[in-house]
Design goal:
The protein is mainly beta and about 200 residues long. The protein has one domain. About 10% of the residues lie in helices and about 35% in strands. Keywords: Disulfide bond. This is C-type lectin domain-containing protein.
Length: about 200
């Protein structure tokens, strides 16, 4: 069942994947690739026992309203501070903010967050994303490594094309000699349906 999605419309499965190939090491985990056989970070199911690079992610909610006049709504999930024709959404810490001016341009200033140290600010989609390269390991180690970083989990490729491209670029830049990378998707409960590691129904793929 190809239920893993990158957003409401798109998946990045290679043709013929997932194939749940059986053998000594059944393919129940999901990797992104950059090889000629797997161009552009396409997904494939692989054995959970192979060793691949680990990228951990922390994400926070962010909401931006359709009506630009309703400035307060842009701060859903954050504290609001107004001043000088603009306003600031406090990002879980008094020194970490998203500042948005009336023409709807925005800048992100994140000198201090509850994201674990050494995580890099990535981008804003419908969420605010931080990433960190965390070495290599088998899938179980990858999940536990990220979970050990507080709010983190294995990176989920679930926010559409721009996020997909960013994640692939991040992985390639931190692991240039590798051609496959762990993503936070698996079928370790053996129901032939891959799910993202946060366990939310909306993130099945």
């Amino acid at each position: 069942m190809k239920t893993l999605v990158a957003d409401s419309m798109k998946t990045f499965w290679l043709p013929g994947e997932p194939n749940f190939k059986k053998g000594a090491e059944d393919e129940r985990c999901v990797a992104m690739g950059k090889s000629p056989e797997s161009p552009g970070g396409m997904w494939e199911d692989v054995s959970c026992l192979i060793t691949l690079p680990i990228t951990c992610e922390v994400r926070f909610p962010y909401s931006y309203p359709r009506n630009p006049r309703k400035m307060e709504e842009r701060c859903q999930g954050f504290a609001l501070k107004k001043g000088d024709g603009s306003f600031i959404c406090q990002l879980l810490s008094k020194n970490s903010t998203i500042a948005v001016d009336p023409d709807k341009t925005s800048r992100v200033s994140l000198p201090e967050t509850i994201a674990p140290k050494e995580f890099e600010f990535a981008m804003v989609t419908g969420k605010i994303h931080f990433l960190r390269a965390m070495g290599k390991g088998q899938y179980t180690k990858a999940r536990s490594t990220c979970k050990g970083e507080g709010l983190a989990h294995l990176v989920m490729d679930d926010r559409g094309q721009d996020w997909h491209d960013y994640v692939l670029q991040f992985m390639v830049s931190h692991f240039p000699s590798q051609d496959k990378f762990w993503t936070g998707g698996d079928d370790i409960d053996w129901n032939n349906e891959h799910s993202w590691v946060d366990g939310e129904e909306d993130y099945r793929f």
